[in-house]
Amino acid sequence: MWIPTEHEKYGVVLASFRGTVQHGLPLEIGDTVQILERCEGWYRGFILKNPNFKGIFPTSYIHLKNAHVKNKGQFETVIPVEDSVITEMTSTLRDWGAMWKQLYVKNEGDLFHRLWHVMNEILDLRRQVLVGHLTHDRMRDVKQHITARLDWGNEQLGLDLVPRREFSMVDPDEISVTELYRLMEHRHRKKETPAAASTHHLFVHVKSLMSANLGEELEVFFHIYDGRENRPLSERFFVKLNKSGLPKSPEKTERQCTLFVDLGSSDLRKDVYIVVHIIRIGRMGAGEKKNLCSVQYRRPFGCAVVSIADLLTADSKDDHLLKVYACNTESEWHQIHENLIKKANSRYNLSGSNTGLAVALQLLHGDIEQLRREYMVLFTRGVSITRKLGFSDVIMPGEMRNDLYITLERGEFEKGGKSVARNVEITVYVLDIDGLILKTHVAAGSGEPGGDEYHSLVLYHNNSPRWAEQIKLPIPVDMFRGSHVRFEFRHCSTKDKGEKKLFGYSFVPLMQEDGRTLPDGTHELIIHKCEENTNLADCPRYLKLPFSKVNLPSNNQTLKGTKESFWITSFLCSTKLTQNGDMLDLLKWRAHPERINDSLSKLKEIDGSEIVKFLQDTLDTLFGILDESSQRYGLKVFDSLVHIINLLQDSKFQHFKPVMDTYIESHFAGALSYRDLIKVLKWYVDRIVDAEHQDHIQQVLKASEYIFKYIIQSRRLFSLATGGQNEEEFRVCIHELFMSIRFFLSQENKSTSPVAQTQAVFLRTFPAVYGELLKIFTVREVAGFVRETLGSLPTAVHADCLEAVKLQCIAKTVESQLYTNPESRCILLPVVLRVLQAHMQEQRDLVMCARILTSMLSLIKKEEENGTAEPVVSEEVELIVESLLGVLLRTILEISNRPQPAGPTMRLQFQDVTGEFVACLLALLRQMSDRHYQQLLQAFSSKDNLRDFLLQIFTVFRILIRPEMFSKDWTVMRLVTNNVIITTVLYLSEALRKNFLNDKFDYKVWDSYFYLSVIFINQPCLQLESFSPSKRKRILEKYGDMRVMMGCEIFSMWQNLGEHKLNFIPAMIGPFLEVTLVPQPDLRNVMIPIFHDMMDWEQRRSGNFKQVEAKLIDKLDSLMSEGKGDETYRELFNSILLKKIERETWRESGISLIATVTRLMERLLDYRDCMKLGEVDGKKIGCTVSLLNFYKTELNKEEMYIRYIHKLYDLHFKAQNYTEASYTLLLYDELLEWSERPLREFLNYPMQSEWQRKEYLHLTIVQNFDRGKCWENGIILCRELADQYESYYDYRNLSKMRMMEASLYDKIMDQQRLEPEFFRVGFYGKKFPFFLRNKEFVCRGHDYERLEAFQQRMLNEFPHAIAMQHVNQPDQTIYQADAQYLQIYAVTPIPESQDVLQRDGVPDNIKSFYKFNHIWRFRYDRPFHKGTKDKENEFKSLWVERTTLTLVQSLPGISRWFEVDKRELVEVSPLENAIEVIENKNLQLRTLITQCQSRQMQNINPLTMCLNGVIDAAVNGGLARYQEAFFVKDYVMNHPEDGEKIGRLRELMFEQAHILEYGLTVHEKFVPQDMRPLHKKLVDQFHLMKSSLGIQEFPAYVRASPVHFTNGSPRTCRNSVPNIISPDGGRGVARRSLPSYPAVNRYSSSSLSSQASNEVSNITGQSESSDEVFNMQPSPSTSSLSSNHSASPNVTSSAPSSARGSPQMAEKHKHSRENACLSPRDRPVSAIFPNPMDPAQRAAPHQIGDATLPRSDPNLSAPDKVRPTPSSWSLDSVKEGAPSFSDSFGKMLCPPVPPRPPYSAGSSAKNMRSQSPVSASRSPQKTTVPPFTPSPTECQSTSLVSNSPVLSGSYSSGISSLSRCSVSEASGTELPAGDHPAHPLPPPSTLPNSVSSSSDEPIRRENKTPPPYSVYERNNPRSRPVPLPHSLSIPPQADPPALPPKPHQLRTGSMKLDGTSDPRVPRPRPLPRKVSQL
User: Fold this and answer.
1) What is this structure's pTM?
2) CA 264 to CA 261: how far, in whole Å?
3) Residue-wise pLDDT tens digits, 454-480
4) 978: which DSSP letter?
5) Which residues contact 1076 (CB under 8 A, 6 or more apart)?
């Protein structure tokens, strides 16, 4: 039976548990579990990180831990009872663990490894804490280390700052907000700027001396030297080195290392140095030979110097190699370091090239105790301490020191009868009062123990030696009296014996008879001469002698006149001894009572360090004098006491305050002193107002704290001694004293007056007195003193400084012990609030105000925690709210709106004060209860006041929510802030409902409320979804989801608005939409219905909800692009609103709106998902195109449309899709007109006119067309720009434009263009984005990209997609699958422009453009066998299934792929397929032969291979297979309808034989010698082929038409196709009913033999209507019709050969045919791309079939004979079938094609129709072309202007549609000057093949509007005059042309013509012309 557990509530998993049992809970080692129930060895519970999943697990797997249970029962929570640092460590490490792995994934290796080390370190420390064996101090250090590491890791990972107190995390609910803010601020500051240490220490470790010439022991001395004052700052550190240069005692580390302690910040400057002196121990001369003498001398060796400033940059223990300089002249030894510091190195030599002293130097910071903790190893291993000379910057009480430093400066000695100077050595002894030598009290420096004596160094032959050696004499204080120092002088002989002969001595006593020690400074000592054997042990004898020349009596001339002297410098550093006689006189006042007055007066002159040494003795002396002679010395003693008290205020002696406090508490015995102290203090206070000099009085008041301490302690001692006598008298005295104080404080003075300054001094010290008064008086009495004293200050104070001091006094009062008592607080609070209110209203001293307020509110929270005085706390909160809430809100508003001050310090202070006021406001609001809110709201006298208050508090709340209010990692503070805000808003919303609804409605208040609510919900710190699970869980447990609470409140308030909702439509749509996009399901369910409400109210008001729709759509784009919203939101939005509007009368329009918005969301979500990808790919571009079209066609949002145009442009440009980028930018260009309307600044465009922007766009587009090698399109735009420049007479730019146009023509002819591949891609399955799902597209491949590469690219873009392996259309299961399927295969483009492609004279460079540009339709062929397959001849049953795909837009366009709009499936019969194959092969042969003739081919091999393939195939049965299949009687009988086709096939076979014959002739001419045998073979095989075909000789129509190839360039046959054979002679009957079957084979070779079944499945062909003709290009291998070879996949065919001209034809028929083959340049053109037909113009393919075939019958008319191929450059209203039109308009501006044929000057339009231009066009280069003379006037007057291309109009999914130029707009031609036409042009109605002609229109899908993304669709709205050639202009009427009008008139006139378009072209809804602002 399961029993709920009582104590077993919390545990840690010891081992992983799989949970394989029923209801088992899988556990991982280390998981923490909460236990609910227990049953026979099993627990039931859940893992804390996933509380929703409960299960059972074995008890043995769990280690139980103590825990505290909150809310026992169903919703209980468990808190482990363990050290909070351990808890934090555990949870933090879990969070880090997940993030640590992500660092590895993100390749942040550095942080990954650093964090790993820190985590291991924390785990080790955690183990130490858990074991529990650490001492208290060590535990504190470990916790400090842990928290420092945790904070570091959190900062590195961007986690939250944790507020801590004593290393433990703080619960924000358990402390006041102000205290929380202070903790956060303190931790933030600590993190930002660690406090600079004031004390520094230098660690020195001597390693070795590296030198080549060692061999003697060395002594190394270090000291710190002040280069500015030329004096040492520290004592010396002394190290002994052995003969190898290594430390002599390596095992004693304390002798190699030292710490120079107590360096102040002022000592770390450039001119402070570490100076090293090195002394050698050995022979007198370094180079002397060894002698038997064992005497050794201390001799100079070298010196080194290094600046301490150099160490500041490196805190690590860097090893330094100090250069050692040797002293050349020993007389300068004393100043060698000074010279080195002065850079006078040239005087000294380096001791050796490799000589250097290796030392480790490191600067350490902080006090010595801190160093002991941080560098424990250093101190335990042993390090000597080297002290500073003198006391440190801060003297600590209890510090014991008694060091006398003596420096042996110099001596003056006589020769003593010697011929050379002496070698003097000094021996120093210290002797006590009994004359005994003090052992171990002479030290050369720290590092080595002291010795009994000290030997100085010896300077060679020097009677005036300067040693400058410092020694330290650490003599105990009790031995100082009577001790003396003796200096013995010896001459060191350099002879063999090496004797040291004594010749004199000096001495100096250490203490004088009066108790003063030897004064600091230099002393000139007398050298007393003596002999070697003199007994100096008899000290009393020589101590009677004088020791210093200063002390010599005047009558002692003997010693005074001697020249020999010895100088020393002494310096005493003692905490017990003094050198000051005045100090001694004061301390011994009883011995000399008459000196008391002088001693007290001189006390102020004594150095402070001397006074603090004897602080207690001095105080005892003062109070002793006061007790004995208070009347006489009372004032003097009081002044001395004030001096000593103020001395302790100095930073150097401030640590002696505790010494004085201890003295007062424990040693002070002046029980009667209080009377005198009060009396003197009152005497001073009473004289303040009248005194002229306030300095001394101010000193007295500064000391008032300690004076009161002495007064109170004295009174307590008196009370203890007397049992409380004279209590009333004492109280009266104190009251009188305070009356005097209040009187002087009440004086009004100017700020500069001395009295005002004295008042300020008193106010600064007054709060320190409270604690002393409380020792005797009650809390209420003291509070009364304070209130009356502060209240006595004048209200109208002119002194700003006094006001600031008053505020500081208030601050100290609030922070004092007095204020913490609730009783005193009731008395003091009104005073404090009054002062605060006054300052905050005037915005003065805000920093101090914030400090006071913070302290007040912190106390209130503490009282509440303790549960005491609840009514008192409530009353205090009420007082504070009443006084300060309003002014606090205003202060925060004003501070926030101020500009931030300059300077980092000021800015920091500014931020601090804002944060503190905010914390105060939050603390106050959190303390407020229901009653407080009711009282607050009832206190407002009028609605206006309440309104102002609400607006203020809502505005302040908005400021608090700002991200910059708190630091990024202050999440704890932000959550507390939000909790307070939502609580307050819930209270205030009731007031809003009661006071500002119905007739009292106030829009501003409600708007402010809603705005606050919206930004509250959208705060980043409340978006729980972005947090880790543990952090989310903690927040939800403590605060819940505050977004949902606020959302419910918004909905509730919205419902209360009623008809006032209309005021917030549409303004609140955007904000509410932003709220609903927050990914919180409950919030969305609450907020989305508001949109239904808005639609309903808007419908009532306006009858529609257009405003709602417009605002929704506008905001959706911006919000979703920021990453908000998801698929769930789209579905929820759709379902909730559809359900809401089910019963509405406006249901249909509502559904439409919801559907539109939902579709927009689909596209925006797809767009956002695509944009997250790194690289630019097709998915991004396709998605942008989809969205762009949606904005244009469905939403008509022009501005959004233009924005996405530019986004798409940027994508293309980045991907280097320059052609697509041009087409994209063209969309915006088409929206603009050539007008002067001003456009506002938009995107990256400046403010400019529409004309300027359009010009800029044109130039950019041309540049991109140039980059994309789409030069033909660039030429169109160049011309348009040139027209504009010409109309403005801007000939400079016109010239540039014409040159640019010319350069584009050159590039067409000179540069190579790659031919792209096209691929059909199907995207099937629900996993694809919406814009791709279950759709098929045709994509234009990249350069050199073939099918395999393209397929791989697509699979890379869609890595989860599955490639389909077949080309059949998928079924519904694939469409509906939850997967991605890609179906990819290559397709063949079907060019629209056949005219250029048909001409053999047009270079391939030009043709290539028309083959692969402006393609709407694509083809895919699949061969199959129908019926029984004939194994002998497969061609009998080989059919082709031809799929034609029509796109929504032509390629290339604004994208590299477009969706397929229509599929057409046609089956091509075997006969038709055969016709196509042979036609293509004939075309290929013709082309190769022509190229060979015109010398275009560098190599004849392609022609050889082609001839070989065809002839060899024919011999081996290629054509024979066709004969067997289709020419047999059975086939003819069974297929009577194919008669014409069989004839056509036969005709083509004969034609092929004729071409081959001519080809062999050409081949023979050009074939190289080594290929002659092959040629002979080909000729032989050709004869066999003819015989196999049954051709003995060619038919008459073939014979009569000799093969004719022009020997010149193909360009010489400009308007007629070269007559390879007689193409038309016998073909008339056959062609009349036989349709043309042009074909292309894109994939593999087709076979005509019986063995072709292996390859037959790859044959592709075409079956299209006759208006489509295709080219076939040669395969790299030999192409043939044989069983092994067939047509190449890359070959496209031109027009049938029957269309070529025949010499036998009549001239008029020839001309008709040739005119049909005119280049686009020779035909009227108005647009780049043909306009689709209207339905009325369309004709079914079978209607077109016969009518459009070229005829060879001379009786047929030209239109019947020649199939005019539709050209992409032609007007759809003027077709090639109209010869007069072609001739008349031959020179119109149009795309680049071969040059125009010149017409004879005198011919008219009529004559042109019957005249063949062949002869005239033979050599166009030699023909004079009429000059190109633009005439704007003529252009304006003629309607031919409309033929200029223009971008205008619009399209259903884009912008533009074409205004077509009708035939009636063409009114005439212009001949060169002097030539007039004989007959005018016939009227348009009489022109043949007019607009109604349907035979020329390409077959398009129904109602297809023109492609909007093509420059080919630019028509002329007559807004731009196009200059025409004179040959096309209307001739002037006799008179010369008039002067052209001014450009602006031209433009105005031409603008009026705009808008004329073909009414038959359907136009989508136009865009509103907002474009003028864009």
Assistant:
1) 0.64
2) 9
3) 999 998 888 889 998 999 998 888 888
4) H
5) 1083, 1084, 1087, 1088, 1091, 1129, 1133
